[in-house]
Amino acid sequence: MGIFSLPVLALIAIVGVVIKAVLYFTAKSPSKNPFKEPIQTPVKPKVIDQKTRDAVLKQGFSKDKVPADLDAIVVGSGIGGMSTAAIMAKAGKRVLVLEQHDQAGGCCHTFIDKNYEFDVGIHYIGEMQYQSISKTYFDQITDGQVEWEPLDETYDEVIFAEREKPVRKYPVRSGKGNWSSDLKKLFPSEEANIDKFFALLEEIRGGNSKSIIVKVLPLWLVSFLNTTGLLSYITDFYDWNAKSCKEVVYGITENQELRDIFCYCFGDFGTPPSKAGFPMQTLLHTHFQKGAAYPIGGASEIAFNIIPVIEAAGGKVLVRAEVTQILLDHKGAVRGVQVKKGKETYDVQAPLVISAAGLYNTYDRLLPLNIASSSRIWPVLQDLEHGPGAMSVFVGLDCSAEELDIIHKKNAWVFTGNDIDKLTLNYLSLTREEALDADIPLLFISFPSTKDPEWDKKYKGKTTMAIVTLMPYHWLEHWKDERVMKRGDEYEGIKKIFGHKAVEQACQIFPSIRDHIDYVNIGTPLSNQHYLGAPRGEIYGLDHTRERFSAWANAVLRPKTDIPGLFISGQDICSCGFSGALWGGLLCASAALERNVFNDLADVHKRGKALKKSN
Ligand SMILES: Cc1cc2nc3c(=O)[nH]c(=O)nc-3n(C[C@H](O)[C@H](O)[C@H](O)COP(=O)(O)OP(=O)(O)OC[C@H]3O[C@@H](n4cnc5c(N)ncnc54)[C@H](O)[C@@H]3O)c2cc1C
User: Fold this and answer.
1) Strand 72-75 to strand 352-355: parallel, antiparallel, or no bridges (unpaired)?
2) What is the pLDDT of residue 16?
3) Which of 55, 322, 433, 567 qualifies as a FRET site for 374, CA 20 to 30 Å off?
4) Which ranges of 510-577 would DSSP assign to H, the alpha helix?
5) Alpha-carbon gap, residue 478 to 8, rounded angstroms
6) Residue 461, pLDDT above cutoff 70
7) In whole angstroms, what is the distance from residue 534 CA to residue 358 CA?
8) 565 Cβ closer than 6 Å to some ligand 1 atom
9) What is the pLDDT of residue 3?
């Protein structure tokens, strides 16, 4: 190794990191601070009138609604795109958000049918029911207008419903030490192993937040730190990521039921325990440690309250505006986008384009192939995969939660047996015909209306249930080119078999619903493709495998691309989930504004807390 011995390399790297960090944190930015003052706006009464809500959420695209002199265009109105747009708006930028669906919100949109309203992709969120830094950030982009209802202390329940065996239920309680002490009572002989598992979660927690460093350091430095092993001195996230959830948990205990309970929530990121790295488990545990919450008034409150913040700076959020191309000038720099409206296409100009429509959409569809394929992200994307497709079943019940005796605010994770990794992988590897005859091994069941204290104002005497499970895209791919709602009897028949099977399995856990089922709507991976713009019906963007969270892939999945003027936001930057996409939105705004807005946020968070104390 000559003069470049390990200590010398370490010194060079550390000096490099320090210089970069000092430059990053002290550099003079060309943009204004988006988070100047703590939010003190009183919460206004909720807008219930649907026409008034639609006037905000469903502003259809037309050329004359496009503001002049745009600073940026955001593709996709999920929380990733909207948060970036709102931060930029608060820094004084005029931003246009374009959404292909007929209303804004992405996974945070809701739909109303037969007088039932359903959330599409929000069941519970951590760190919102108290003044965490995430909550301060979210308050900033909604002017503090979204309120949160805490779920029960037992926010999740793990249920094993095996044929011919009694159902076994295990609560997952928030609050420091609660879940582990419950488990110790239920598995007394496993006390030491339970301690080991929770100690490990604590140990890795610190490394999780530091893992983000690879997204802000120059790539050459990341490569250097990674290949020399020096990255491990900064964060142990990547070392732990080399081990799967399954590997770590199997190393802790031989009790299969306990192993499954430790990994039960892999459905929150969609990647089974043998394919996901152990840090994914620790991220979720940290996220929900202090409890979970639900947006009062339903998920559409999110976009409904962000849009005015974007509009206050002269921006707009327009729907029915499918972006078909990112336009480049002769030097290869971004100059705008092409939008399809009906049979017409329109060019909209802006110096920056932020794609929050997912990386595969961006690189496979929106960019010219020669540009996309010569980008540094291309080889990484070829090695990664689309996350799993999913089926959602929306059930309307014709009576109140009290009548059903389902007054809890929690979610059920129902498995048809032990070894949930094997059960899931076996199921996903079946052909469609085989799957039609099989039990669905994993069901997430939630009663969204019971979590919303405002529900009765609009839908008194009704209850909603949502069931979500994984479903491979290829099972229904045959109908991908058919028009939505017009896919024919065979498709409808197959969809019904899967959906009704899920409902029947849910009835076995919640028998009181059986005689009150008034409405069933089944969303398949093709529905996700149509309404969420998900190319293979995935619900969480890129698959959350160990490969995706390797140091190099994680570094390359950064907001600033090597195409001048093109930035990426949303769940493909940090991780899926409302919070994952929200933080992806902040990283993206930082890059696009060339300003460390995290510093601005930390500062306003501190001042807000001091203000609350003094009041
Ligand atoms: C069924 C389900 C349940 C979930 N449950 C939870 C939960 O309980 N808690 C939680 O934290 N997370 C949950 N999630 C995950 C979470 O909702 C997402 O990870 C997050 O909201 C993704 O945000 P995003 O902005 O990155 O993407 P999205 O919300 O998917 O937004 C992307 C947007 O881009 C649009 N788009 C795509 N292509 C184009 C184009 N060419 N032109 C214009 N627009 C385009 C799409 O229509 C979409 O609106 C769930 C998701 C689903 C689907």
Assistant:
1) parallel
2) 57
3) 322
4) 525-532, 551-556
5) 58
6) yes
7) 8
8) no
9) 44
Q: Quote the ligand 1 centre to 516 CA distance (angstroms).
A: 30
390 CB-near residues (< 8 Å, 6+ apart): 270, 468, 469, 470, 471, 525, 528, 537, 538, 539
Any ligand 1 atom below 6 A from CB of 78? yes
Distance CA 355, CA 561 (A): 11
Q: Are strands 148-150 and 292-295 parallel, antiparallel or unpaired?
A: antiparallel
Strand 352-355 to 344-349 pairing: unpaired
Measured from the Cα of 570, ligand 1's closest atom is 26
Tokens of 327: 């336009």
Q: Which of 467, 464, 466, 461 is nearest to 402 (CA)?
A: 461
Hey, which residues does 322 pair with through a beta bridge? 340
HSE-up (13 A, CA, CB side) for residue 296: 17
CA-closest residue to ligand 1 atom 51: 121
**Closest ligand 1 atom to Cα of 390:** 1
Q: How far is it, in rounded angstroms, from Cα 221 to Cα 445?
A: 45
Q: Is the CB of 539 under 6 A from ligand 1?
A: yes
Ligand 1: residue of 107, 134, 271 to mutate (most ligand atoms within 8 A of CB) is 107
| Phi, psi angle pair for 407, to nearest 5° | -105, 15
Nearest-5° Cα angle at 591, 586 to 592: 95
571 lines ligand 1 (CB under 6 A): yes
Structure token pair of residue 144: 């503090």
What token pair was written down for 143? 């002017």
Q: If you ran DSSP here, which 8-state letter would residue 67 be given?
A: P
Q: What whole-number distance in Å separates Cα of residue 314 and Cα of residue 207?
A: 40
Sign, CA torsion 173/178/182/183 = positive
Q: Are 70 and 95 in contact (CB under 8 A)?
A: yes
Query: CB 243: neighbour CB atoms within 10 A?
Result: 15
Strand partners, 111: 118
Q: Beta-strand (E) ranges in 11-150?
A: 72-75, 95-98, 110-113, 116-119, 125-126, 148-150
Atom in ligand 1 nearest the alpha carbon of residue 572: 26
Strands 95-98 and 316-318: parallel
How far is the centre of ligand 1, averaged over its atoms, from the C-alpha of 198 (Å)? Answer: 31
In percent, the amount of the chain with pLDDT more than 90 equals 93
330 CA distance to ligand 1 middle (Å): 33
C-beta of 79 in contact with ligand 1 (< 6 A): yes
The predicted model gives 56-63 an average pLDDT of: 98
CA 468 to chain CA centroid, nearest Å = 15
HSE-CB at 555 with a 13 A cutoff on CA atoms is 19
Mutation pick for ligand 1 pocket among 97, 98, 118, 122 (CB with most ligand atoms within 8 Å) = 122
Residue 29's pLDDT is: 82
Query: Which three-class secondary structure state does DSSP give residue 428?
Result: helix
Give the per-residue pLDDT at 2.
Answer: 43
